[in-house]
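Hello,

Our lab assistant flagged a job as stuck in the queue for most of the afternoon. It eventually completed. Since we weren't sure the result was trustworthy after the delay, we are filing this so someone can double-check. Below is the sequence as submitted and the structure that was eventually returned. Let us know if re-running is recommended.
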Amino acid sequence: MKIQRLSIAEAIASVNSTTRGLSATEAERRLREFGANRVERVAGEPLLLRFVKEFTHFFALILWLAAALALIAEWSSPGQGMAKIALAIVAVIIISGLFSFWQEFRVERTLAALKRLLPHDVEVMRGDVVIRISAEQLVPGDVVLLQQGDNVPADCRLIEAFGVRVNNATVTGEAAPQARDAEPAIHDDALRSTNLVLAGTSMVSGQARAVVFATGMRTELGRIAHLVQSGTEAESPLRRELARLSRVIGVVSVVIGVVFFAIGRAIGVPFWQDFIFAIGIIVAMVPEGLLPTLTLALVLATQRMAKRNVLIRYLPAVETLGSTTVICTDKTGTLTQNRMAVKELFLGRVLDSTAAAQRRSELAERFRPFFLAGMLCHDLRETKVRDENALLGEPMEIALFVMAREALPSAQRTPRLHEIPFDAERMRLSVVHEAGGGPTLYCKGAPEVLMSRCSRMLLEDEVRPFDEKLRGQVQDAHEAMAERGLRVIAFAYRPLSADWRNMELERELVFAGLAGLEDPPRAEVPEAIRRCREAGIRVIMVTGDHPRTAAAIAREIDLARSDDCPVIAGEALRSLSDTQLQLALDAPEVIFARVSPEQKLRIVEALKQKGHVVAVTGDGVNDAPALKSAHIGVAMGIAGSDVAKESSDMVLLDDNFASIVSGIEEGRAVFENIRKFLTYILAHNVPELLPYLAFSLFNIPLALTPIQILSVDMGTDSLTALGLGVERPAPRVMQRPPRRREERLFDWPLALRAYLFLGLIEGAAAMAAFFFVLHRGGWAYGQLLAADDAVYLQATTACLIAIVVMQIANVFLCRSASRSIVSTGLGGNAWIAWGVALEIALILLIAYTPPGNLLVGTAPVSGNVWVFVLPFAGGMLVLEELRKWIVRRRQRSLA
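-- returned structure --
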């Protein structure tokens, strides 16, 4: 039998302890056996190994190889600029690896937040003496002393309790203080047992002695910590796509490099010269600027999302959010305002709206005990906020107190003589106050509970027996309120005699009436749900609320449009197998109510098994496993616990569901933007590769050197590529379904457009500019040119200028794969504007200044080169516009 079901004596005996605690010797022995009372890290990959992995993934290995080969080439043939190439590539690897490794600290930060929930020191009885020890030294069988304000250091069974109320929010997510006593519990659920206090919770009031029965990772808090660490963390679709892209580009680059190295050897090119050219091909094919540009684009996207109350904690989550197909959302505070207000009253036999304070004053004249109960039955505290009085406590109690104060503005609050605290088992709160005619008990609680304890009912100014007819009327009113989504609270009272302290108080009560409270839905939520529906995203409510209330709110916000929308309560969910749960999730609409944290995690896992990309909201410590397991964990910024925030990928700064939808819109834009700058970056790989093909196959001087290639990849193109990465969402982005899981970041249409269309046009312009300068300088086919020949330097400069000019035109073409440049325009993106300015400035510095000439290996060219290149840019614009027109026409024919 579990310890909560045992009597006090049996509970102490079950852990081989006494009311005086353990001896020092026994405590020391148990410490060796059970270990320290702390949240431990589950054994996993060493931090050093994870650090190394960030620098040894496939794409990084390709870059390391290119850097190593460049250093070898510099050693064998100094003065070719290969050392500069190696250093630039290594810088890219280090910057990208350090940033990725930073993301690995999320679990460590979550553990740190969990550890902060446990106290540093605790008072404990050892050998009938009270001493203060470190909480880590607690062992099962210790007897601890707790009082108001203490954090509970371990899972404990109360053996003495005086007015104890605890805040279990860190473990259960319920913020309302719960009463606790030392009597045996009636069930085995540790989270609901009224005689247990759990590690990480806090004492709101009272004093207690308790015997420890679980420490460290054996506690409920430890179990959550284990789930957080050992739970499956969904791989980001973006990470998965980037890994695939890295493999494709890396393999293609190395294969092409090796093939042309072999061709060079076959036609008699000297080894080291051929080796340098092979490295150049690899450098030309690998987009070195991709990872840093992607990182910066994601950072800027997160800054834009922060302005929409979405704080991104994990960069790949930006794009993953855009892939979301299902959102599992809480109700209170996310779909609703978490600002409860009394909407209806049932007094006497009348169901009345209470919108006007004047109407409440009229009712107070006839139903004064009802409003006095609302004013006195609470655990609120008054405080000063900006020199104004404010109430701290549950939103429901605040709403009832405000209602009563408006009805009885001149009523004086009398001293509280006694209190019987609320708890989940009793489902009621009773207080005794001095009234004009003597002490009076006022009671607040669930209607079905209070009705069973009432023998009379207040009707107008008289009290009548609470017969079956009146009970039926009250029950009908209760059900009508609940059907409208109201939370219904009943009030009762009872005048007491002078010897009330010696009698059973909560019986023979007078039923005073019902209050129906509304937590209004956020005004923007219905529109947000409509946008989700248009975007092909399912929204599933997963709440701890009553099924009927959940269904009513779902209908009000248009989440449930059909009358037969299934509502699956926690009890029913517990009886479903995994297969049955997955089949239940096939329903077009479904609501989960009265669910536990473990069931929430189970729902997330079932959706993932069905192939969905899942976003889930949460605010408590108990939500951490589900937040970590989901593809996107969404924590509440206002009501969320530190542990929930640390386990999440993003935080809603306003706790508003509509902000999730805004984040999805931005996330969808991120995927499209990555494709835009990927097209842009890959397009210039072709004009960078063609010079090596021409050199190897046709014995033509090398039109572009490796250092000039890097000047494009990591210099002139960097800011314009970044500009494409931060483009605003397209006008109809939320009217398209989520992208398919099999849809690739790098697919055939993108490759063909980048390499065989835009890239070939740019390549033709670059080679044409190269030959234009060579022929003007008197070069003839087959003639060899020295690396420092003035004509050769000018020709390579012309090739470089052509690539830059074509990329300036290309950045505006890449703003959309189908929309005309007329609709996308030339403005509206400051990053692109500054990027174009930077490209022009850099190419001018590279071509026309001595430091630029020395660093990149260039020479000044005449203005004729610029005039020669511009028509190629115009031609590319016309051809790309024609391609887009064909695409749009085909899309319309398929629609």
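-- support follow-up --
The delay was a queue issue, not a problem with the job. The result is valid. The first strand starts at residue 121 and ends at 126. The mean pLDDT is 83.
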